[in-house]
Predict the structure.
Amino acid sequence: MVERLRKTPGFIPDLSLVAEIDSIVVGHILFYLTSVLLIHQNKGIGGELVKAGLKSTTKQGYRSVINEFNEV
C-alpha cells in the first residue's frame, strides 16, 4: 500500500518518514498514513514519527495539518 501511495501525484517525499531500530524499518508515517510494526507498537514510535513529521511540515511552510483518525 505504501509503495502505491508513493507513486501518486500528491506524494511529497519530505513528508514520508521512517523509524528504524538496528537498521530495520519498524515504523512509517506518510501524513495520510502512519504505520508501526505490530511487535513495536505502544513504544512511542508512532508518536515520535508524528512529532518529526510536524516539525518537517513547519520547516516546509505548511501552516496547518488536518488529522483524521480511523481506528481499525
